[in-house]
């Protein structure tokens, strides 16, 4: 009986060692994947910072003004003035559609005790 208990204990230890070995490699793989994702996120942040800098550089007011002057003949862009804008109360909004009621209930012939 003791030998059976020893064999069962040894098999249990071997099984737990195998489980710990697999969990260790699964953990190492998850950590490696996490590091890869962090690296990709840092690269994406760096690309985004470069794109924002390029956007700011391309949208400098003096550059846009120069481009508008160079291409005036073709684009005919004019500067905006405050008097070109209107007020909301000057806008004519479309009339709302008329309300139509279907399956109406005539309340003039109903009693207070009658259920609907």
From TrEMBL:
Keywords, ordered alphabetically: Cell cycle, Cell division
One annotated GO biological process: cell division
Lineage top rank: taxon: Bacteria
Name the record gives this protein: Cell division protein FtsL
Organism this protein belongs to: Sulfitobacter albidus
